[in-house]
Fold:
Amino acid sequence: MTQRKIVLAGGSGIVGTQVAQMLKRRMPQSDLIIAGRNIETAQAVAFAVGGTALRIDVNAPVLPDTLDGSLIAGLTNDPSDHLLKLALVRGMPYVDITRWTERLKQGLVTAAGHGDLQAPAVFASAWMASLAGLMVRYASRDLPVIDTVTLDILFAVSDQAGPNSAAYMDRLSEPFYTLHNGQWTRRLGMLDGHLVSFENAGNHKTYRFDTPDQSSLPLITGAKTVDARIGFDDRKATVLLHLLVRSGIWSLLSRPMFDNVRKAILFNPGNGAEHRIKITVKGQDATGKPVTKILEINDPSGQTHLTALGAVLQIENLLSPAAPIAGSYLGEALLDPAYVVAQLKEENVSVTETFAE
Structure:
């Protein structure tokens, strides 16, 4: 792999720290720059991984000329695209894992409006830094026709979580669109629940939520229906959130004056717990026979570890001989899914594939 400086914007956060640690282990010669608003926190992480600390504010990012040609990884929210624009102007390879659907579209428009790009810009903000979408591609690999894709997420309430996770879930009352039988359909979060059996974790109710996968996977797989739902391993928490959204109370709580109330409900991170994803792909094989494939992913180290691994795989790809040419990309459309499965297993993430009757 190319030895290039890697600027981890948000590299001292929960996910960013794990990205730095993983890169140092997997690419020991990498030159890591841990960038964040709090220089002391950045210095602590940089010291632990043998990197360099840099103070940076994503709302007004400045990088010294000595970092020209570096790869920039956006591991913290970039709400006004300032970090993205800096990478585009300076011609620096870029990967972002922090955007919900509307902000992902915003980023893609920003990149398209820049004109001819001088380096690849990778938007890997689909679930768990695009790993879920890559696993959908893996499950779909030998099915020439894909009819439906369903993602069911079981989120552990005692898992680690950073502020970005809370911001993502904070938008539950915002409408979004999914493709259903080839038609874009308006949806609301935490509604239309169904019961899902998760391997070794029992049955849990999951409800709709907004994730970029529902916009990208119809294009990538050709599926006519793509749905994503989420539930919590604490069934009471799932029921509470469902009732708050269904009753309209959550919409009222979305006002700025209730920020602390929503944070108290959504952002209570623990020390870590298993993160589970169940992918169901329905399609047809080469003979036209209907086939249902089920892929279950279980990361015992939790969703922050899985997200960090997804980010690392995207960074490694941008530094490899197989790196894409200059242009704008979705992370779930890059990478070889079979290679990703192998890397997941090497990092102690369980991937189980079965066929439904």
